Amino acid sequence: IGCSDSRVMPNMITGTGPGDLFIVRNIGNFVPPFRPDDDYHSTASAIEYAVTSLKVSDIIVCGHSDCGAIKACFQEITPNEENIHTIRWLQLGAPAKRMALDALPEESFEARRDFAEKVSVVFQLENLLSYPAVKRRVDEGTLFLHGWHYDLASGEILYFDESELEFKPLGAS
């Protein structure tokens, strides 16, 4: 699950070819919490399909540096009929914004944004666990969740180490 930012290309990042990945992209690589209602749920539908029909073994939530969605979470956007869905969607980044503001009150905007980009990945992993099929398969040990942060400038990928609660370079032991 990655951002729809055109600078983030999952197949190039992972060195995979066509057909190797089932890719879900949206603004901010956000995962909405599970809601069993009759509304349209594109990301939720893709998650359910990947887990129940394709039987994927791993889900990666991949955030990235200089994320426009996270940046937008820190801005005041005037709602109107042309951006109502975007404003609602950006609310999925609000917990990361709040945590960044609380944890780094004296830091620069860039430092808070960078922190929020990573923390948001962790919140999206938590939201994935609200999906019954995801939770069941994780509990069974047949599905593994991963949080990544991709640095656009360096190409470095950090992964979220759940045991130490920090992001570390992918491939480091």
Describe the protein in words.
The chain is α/β, with parallel strands linked by helices. Helices cover 40% and strands 16% of the residues. It has helices at 10-14, 42-53, 68-73, 84-90, 94-103, 109-128, 132-140, and strands at residues 2-3, 25-26, 58-64, 144-150, 157-161, 166-169. The strands form two sheets. It has a four-stranded mixed beta sheet, with helices on one face. The protein has a two-stranded parallel sheet with strand order 1-2. The longest helix is centred in the C-terminal third of the chain and has 20 residues, at 109-128.
Salient structural properties:
alpha/beta; four-stranded mixed sheet; 40% helix; 173 residues; two-stranded parallel sheet; 16% strand; single chain
Provide a brief overview of the structure.
By secondary structure, the protein is of the alpha/beta class.
Topology of this structure?
Blueprint lengths: L1 E2 L6 H5 L10 E2 L15 H12 L4 E7 L3 H6 L10 H7 L3 H10 L5 H20 L3 H9 L3 E7 L6 E5 L4 E4 L4
Parallel strand pairs: 1-2, 3-4
Antiparallel strand pairs: 4-5, 5-6
Helix pairs in contact: 5-6
